Amino acid sequence: MKTKSPVVKNQEFEGEVIDLTYQGLGVVKIDDFPVFVVNAIPGEIVKVGITKAQKNFAFGRVIKRLKDSPNRNQDVDQDAITTGIAPLANLKYDAQLAYKQSQIVELFKKVHVDANVAETIGMENPVGYRNKAQIPVREIKGELTTGFYRRNSHNLVAIEDYYIQDPEIDKAIVVVRDILRKYHVPAYDEFTNQGVIRTIMVRRGYYSHEMMVVLVTRTKKLQLVDEIVREISEALPEVKSIIQNINPDKTNVIMGRENNVLWGAKIIKDTLFDKQFEIGPLSFYQVNPQTTERLYSLAADKANLQGDELVIDAYSGIGTISLTIADRVREVMGVEIVEGAVEDAKRNAKINGIKNVHFTLGKAEEQMVAWQEAEVQPDVIFVDPPRKGLTPELIDAATAMAPAKLIYISCNPATLARDAVQILANGYHISGDIQPVDQFPQTTHIESVTVFEKDV
Ligand code: SAH
Q: What homologous superfamily is domain 12-72 in, according to CATH?
């Protein structure tokens, strides 16, 4: 067994990029030893400098590109790639879509599950789509600065064009930054846990154009808060809600638990499939409204709803899936862990006049078992979990209730593939193709819909 890395920091070598990892890093090998390189794509010949050497692999950076891939997108700002805003933007969009499809294929091969993966459904205009921004605030050269971290670091790079965000959000961040500068509000310092403004969060309704600005602060006190709030609301007429979120801890978690409405409403509104949604500061809301409609209509179509079904919507968030399918089924039961999101979901049912949906606050893995023990008999179960996927208990409880279909909306193909093994073992098969939908263009995130059907 090797105990030491065969390469050392700052060592230089030349090689061909042979693969792209799930994090979008190019793989270059010295003999058999893999080096992961930022902004290097398969087929390219690069001169690499080692930045960090570990026992089984190393990280490197491109010193010089000796041959470009035809898949390289030459028209993108390098900061977008190297900060991790848009780590895949060095690939032309078609190549990004193919990469996402093949990542799912490979992960299913690894777990020995046969599955067809369809071509990724992409966006026509895959930039400027994000309806939400969480922008770190730090002091650079004595000035409060907004931007993004260099990848694998906490070094803030000043940025004004975030490439994948709604351009109106980019503008709003600069406006808020300038107002905070004007009133000399101290930026947060994560090393000493001092300073005040940690993060600026902005959300903008795609259809409503309503904007929410959240100032995440370390301290309860925010100096000159009245002036700051007045200036933000005057400078940005779309702003309907300004909220202070307090996060006193020395932590990487962005939002704290306490929210104070500084001005305006405590939610903003938006629509999805002509349904009204109210969204609070701590609630999850899909970040790409254009592809979300495609994703959900696809999932609903694949469920082939006839009007009489009992449906479970696990990980229901603010109720987007439940409410958009409600008029095609008998009843929907949702479960969600974030209290504010459940409140939003219940209110959203009410404002849309929808009566056949019920939301429970709790852990999906526990609630699924409770439903099974209560002998609930769902016809269809939707699951839309976070990146860590489902738990074995949830899968056992869900399949024990024997729904005809289990529709898995996944934002992480690695956990999807892992969970598929257990779902198949419990008497289900994959029906049709796994369908990737590009919810997150220019990034390495992969969203997909899979239908598991009960074996007969
Ligand atoms: N289906 C919704 C939300 C999907 S995101 C939509 O499309 O908008 C995943 C959701 O799962 C988030 O709202 C998150 O708060 C919630 N969540 C995370 N862990 C959970 C758990 N263990 N039990 C229930 N909900 C959970």
A: Nucleic acid-binding proteins (2.40.50.140)
Ligand 1 centroid–CA 319 distance in Å is 10
Cα(132)–Cα(205) distance, integer angstroms:
9
Question: Quick check: 386 and 436 in contact, CB under 8 A?
Answer: no
282 C-beta closer than 6 A to ligand 1? no
Atom of ligand 1 at shortest range from CA of 285: 8
Q: Ligand 1 pocket test: which of 284, 325, 390 has the largest number of ligand atoms within 8 Å of its C-beta?
A: 284
292, 337, 395: residue to mutate for ligand 1 pocket, most atoms within 8 A of CB:
337
Q: Which ligand 1 atom is the nearest neighbour of the CA of 292? A: 7
**Domain 132-269: which CATH number of 3.40.50.1100, 2.40.50.140, 2.40.50.1070, 3.10.580.10:** 2.40.50.1070
Do β-strands 26-30 and 33-37 pair in parallel, antiparallel, or remain unpaired? antiparallel
Query: What is this structure's pTM?
Result: 0.92
* Any ligand 1 atom below 6 A from CB of 342: no
Q: List, in sequence order, the alpha helices (H) in 238-379.
A: 289-303, 320-325, 339-351, 364-373
Say yes or no: CB of residue 361 within 6 Å of ligand 1. Answer: no
Q: What is the DSSP letter of 257?
A: S
Per-residue pLDDT of the chain (456 residues; tens, 9 = 90+): 556 788 999 999 999 999 999 999 999 999 899 999 999 999 999 999 999 999 999 999 999 999 999 999 988 888 888 888 999 999 999 999 999 999 999 999 999 999 999 999 999 999 999 999 999 999 999 999 999 998 878 899 999 999 999 999 999 999 999 999 999 999 999 999 999 999 999 999 999 999 999 999 999 999 999 999 999 999 999 999 999 999 999 998 999 999 999 999 999 999 998 899 999 999 999 999 999 999 999 999 999 999 999 999 999 999 999 999 999 999 999 999 999 999 999 999 999 999 999 999 999 999 999 999 999 999 999 999 999 999 999 999 999 999 999 999 999 999 999 999 999 999 999 999 999 999 999 999 999 999 999 999
What whole-number distance in Å separates Cα of residue 226 and Cα of residue 203?
A: 21
**Which atom of ligand 1 approaches the CA of 296 most closely?**
7
